[in-house]
Amino acid sequence: VINLILVLVGLTRSYPDDVVRNSSREWLMTHAVKDEAYRMPEDGLLDPRFVGMSAEEVYDILDAEKKSKPKPENKPGEGESSGSGSGSGDETSPDNTEGEGEGEDEDEDDCPWGHVEDAVNEETGEALTPDELAEAEKEIAQTISVATGIARNRGQMPGALASAIIAADKPSIDWQEEMRETVVDYFPDDFSFAKQNRRYLGGELVIPALDGEQRGHACIMTDASGSVTQTEFSQFMGDSLYICREMGFEQVTLIQFDWTACEPEELEAGEEPEMIRRRTGGTRFRAPFDKADDLDILDTFDLIIVFTDGGDDQYPNEPDCPVIWATTGEFWGGPPPFGHVIKVKL
User: Fold this and answer.
1) pLDDT tens across 301-316, in order?
2) Coil, strand or helix: which one is 237?
């Protein structure tokens, strides 16, 4: 599956999956590959019939084919103790002895591919801590996301690669949980049962509230431009409601924007936003920041959350408070020059 993806990326022109699937292995090995780096070695695993399939689908096919092959009969005088297996050289027996595996170990260092190495700190050479590893994984995921957007815009995204990225992009946690974890990084949780959450006063359950001061003043800037679908906008408003209800901010300011920005909607703790769309024009990230600056409220924000589909590449100056970019799509021209990016799953 990986080799097919590499060869398809190396083709000078895009070919439909069915054309590639019906081609020969020799055609794929030599045809129109613009860079020698994308050519497979002669003994490389490469089968056109697997184009567009996941690794799991290929495993299922190979397993079914293996089971359907008739087992060769032993000749008279031959028994199981003879040690002559019926499998091909690329199959590994689970009963290999240490002696049988020694040859492979000796040749392993001569192989230029196939190694798996633990990530290390480039400066110290030591293994990454769990926090460093998590940060490295986030950077890799963001790099893949940006590269994917660029490749799609240039028409250089083979269907097989797109499918692999989509499969790998399934989040391990809900994005709202990532949002909460990011907010907690800026405003650590400190809950206490001595102070009950007033949203649940009078109920049967005693729900703890944040001990001491709340998380301050948050601003939610919501992209309502024409490129944002109604489904995306509904998601943004639902998530804004979640933030107002669950994040524990003392005050929330909401600003919808497209090319220009609406008048801010101010909410106190416990209040909920109106679920009304007020814009449908082009996108300009600077608009809500400029609006807040003109009203002299930009410096009052402790956190800014921008909901968008990523459809702009002109950014404002970085404010003094942290910024979270919650996006359903890829940012034009690459990631924002500041802030933390979270992928919103519809």
Assistant:
1) 999 999 999 989 889 9
2) helix
